[in-house]
Amino acid sequence: MSIGSAEEVMALEMAEKLKNLECEILFDERLAPFTTFQVGGPADALALPTTEDDLVELIERCRSEALPVTVLGGGANTLVRDGGVRGVVIAFPKAFRGIEVIEEGADRVLLEARAGEKIPALVRFAAERGWAGTECLAGVPGTVGGALAMNAGTAESYIEDAVESVRWVPLDGGVPEWLPVEALHFSYRRTELPAPGVVLSVRFSLRQADAGAIREQLMRSAVQRRERQPWGVPCAGSIFKNPPGERAGVLIESAGLKGMRIGGAQVSEVHGNFMVNLGGATATDVLALIEEVKRTILEQKGIELALELNVIGEDPA
């Protein structure tokens, strides 16, 4: 009788630890289709919960079985290494969406968006009603949960400016609860929860404004982004953080690196701080391109670029 490979044995053990859960579990599933970069190896187990109860049950099972958990969310601004991710990866490709008006006053509006809701839908919902505060997210890909994790926005305004509270589940166990904005720690392109956890929804405090003026602002922003950012090809958004007093895209362009290519990965010919998947790119291609850009900028400009892109997983054995 054949015992099977180490991978097969591991998959059987993982399946046993996660049996009888309500949410869908896919084993040894490639994560590339679940990211906007369309790059990445497999997850030991990919969990696709559709309800809060399913998610809480999943988190409790992972805690009791000592399984590592990685939250992928909508898969934007993320690069999965070619060796994939060990343990359980949680994704919300079609779940945890919805927008609800909680309170509406003469001057302020309290709006709740579920973590899986698409950012363009949130921005459009607020703009159509003349509610200001989410315009800084215009053109940002991905979901509300991902935008919160990255403290997304422009150079002048961030999502933190509109957040009122966050509903979450800690990974060390517990039930969903609300966190006031004061319990979060915001920094440049990063938001820290009090402990590792999964965000379920975000409440935004928005102000009443002129709907026509907001729509005009969003149209100008959309035109600018289409002119200055790549469209129609897989990418993950900005790769590097802007160094103090500098713009990463300008540094990369002035170094003559736009269009540089390694394998299927290319520095965008439209914007220096974007990398695109021309087809068949691997995470190894992207990471090699990142290192070449960092090396060149350090040599030419004396500036060390820091990643804004979230890299998860491990290299192939």
Summarize the structure.
The chain has 317 residues and is of the alpha+beta class. Helix content is 27%, strand content 28%. A hairpin with a 6-residue loop joins strand 16 (265-267) and strand 17.
Q: Strand content of the residues, in percent?
A: 25-35%
Oligomer classification: single chain
Count of helix runs: 7
N-C termini distance: 27 Å
Q: Which class of secondary structure composition applies to the elements?
A: alpha+beta
List the helices and strands and how they pair.
Elements: H1 6-17, E1 24-30, E2 42-48, H2 52-64, E3 69-73, E4 78-80, E5 85-91, E6 99-104, E7 108-114, H3 119-128, E8 131-132, H4 144-149, E9 163-170, E10 177-180, E11 185-187, E12 190-192, E13 197-208, H5 211-228, E14 235-238, H6 248-254, E15 261-262, E16 265-267, E17 274-277, H7 283-301, E18 310-312
What does this protein look like?
The mean pLDDT is 92. The longest helix has 19 residues, at 283-301. The chain is globular, with a radius of gyration of 21 Å. The protein is built from seven helices and 18 strands. The protein has 317 residues and is an alpha+beta fold. Strands 6, 7, 8, 9, 10 and 13 form a six-stranded antiparallel β-sheet that branches. A four-stranded mixed β-sheet has the order 1-2-5-3, with helices on one face. Strand 6 and strand 7 (108-114) form a beta hairpin. The protein has helices at 6-17, 52-64, 119-128, 144-149, 211-228, 248-254, 283-301; strands spanning 24-30, 42-48, 69-73, 78-80, 85-91, 99-104, 108-114, 131-132, 163-170, 177-180, 185-187, 190-192, 197-208, 235-238, 261-262, 265-267, 274-277, 310-312.
